[in-house]
Amino acid sequence: QKINPDIVYGRDDMFAFYLTQKSGYFTLFEKHEPYEGKGFNDFFFDKFIKNNQNKAKLVVNSNELRKMYNSCNIDLDSILAASNGTNIIPDDKIPSSVTLDEKRVQIGYVGSLFKGRGIDIIIALAKKIPDATFHIIGGKDKDIEFWKSKENLENLIFHGFVEPKETYKYRNMCDILLAPYQSDNEGNRSSKYMSPIKLFEYMSSKKAIICSNFKVVYEALNDECALLVDSSDINAWENAVIELIEDKEKREKLANNAYEKFLNYHTWSARAQKILDYIQSSK
Predict the structure, then answer these.
(1) Helix axes 119-128 and 141-150, enclosed angle (nearest 10)
(2) What is the C-alpha to C-alpha distance for residues 172 and 226, in angstroms, rounded to an integer?
(3) Angle in degrees, CA 89, 94, 97, rounded to 5
């Protein structure tokens, strides 16, 4: 049965969206990757942009990507930057299998353990700050074995892979959450263009956050809702962690500010509404 949609919207299958546009439908495409100018998808992306007569042509998930596609001769007004988001967490449960020492500050990281995620920073912090407990949630067994071979500390706990729908419980058990992203030349090639869902998940947990101070991070965080430090400066990381360990009031203030910002701008519903408003204003 043939349908007659008001709009065709999506990502990944560039050829399909080129055809829907060619059929006369209002078609808006979303891209989360830098333009490389080669390959099947970029070939049809070029045709899509060339033939697209709508004011709204493209949605990306960071301002850095928006600027990049603007340099590909697409008007800024034709590109919307809508950062990623996440859901409001359901409750304040913590994992039933974990017993916490309430006298110690709990510091966590949730994510993969490969190069560019700053796991070496976390290990160095655990070594420098033995009075706090550090939790690393995520990673494959071989990655955990690799990092444990570097340093096996009593106050550093590797929890291994956790189902994504369960990770909120591990964030809930922490007082401070870390996001020590590393820059391109430190092993993370996508750092310039990322829109990290991890940060929105951290914000949704109403926890104090310490994060690398990349330009793209400021699309999620600012100095009112997180401590932002140089990605590879271990002394800056140590000072930030100690500051928040010693100042519970500041932890709570940063956490509350981050949560309010999350509710206003970084839920999936807020993102969808931003895109719908953009579509409406472009017609």
Answers:
(1) 40
(2) 17
(3) 140
Q: For residues 103 and 182, is the Cβ–Cβ distance under 8 A? A: no
Q: Can you tell me the distance from the alpha carbon of 158 to that of 165, in angstroms, rounded to the nearest whole number?
A: 18
| CA pair distance 171, 89, nearest whole angstrom | 10
User: In this structure, are strands 208-212 and 227-229 parallel, antiparallel, or unpaired?
Assistant: parallel
DSSP 180-245: ----GGGT-TTTTT---HHHHHHHHTT-EEEEE--GGGGGT--TTTSEEE-TT-HHHHHHHHHHHH
What sign results for the dihedral spanned by CA atoms 112, 116, 117, 122?
positive
- pLDDT confidence bin for 3, thresholds 50/70/90: confident
For residue range 230-262, list pLDDT tens digits in order: 998 999 999 999 999 999 999 999 999 999 999
Cβ atoms of 132 and 155 within 8 Å: the answer is: yes
The two three-digit tokens of residue 240, written as one number: 């930030």
Torsion of CA 218, 273, 167, 165, to 10 degrees: -160
Q: How far apart are CA 177 and CA 207, in angstroms?
A: 7
How far apart are the C-alpha atoms of 119 and 13, rounded to whole Å? 34
Q: What is the mean pLDDT of the chain?
A: 90
Q: Look at residue 182 in the predicted model and tell me its pLDDT.
A: 87
137 touches 110 (CB < 8 A): yes
User: How many Cβ atoms are within 10 Å of 224's Cβ, its own excluded?
Assistant: 11
Rounded percentage of the chain residues whose pLDDT exceeds 70: 95
172 near 94, Cβ under 8 Å?
Answer: yes
Neighbours of 220 (CB within 10 A): 29
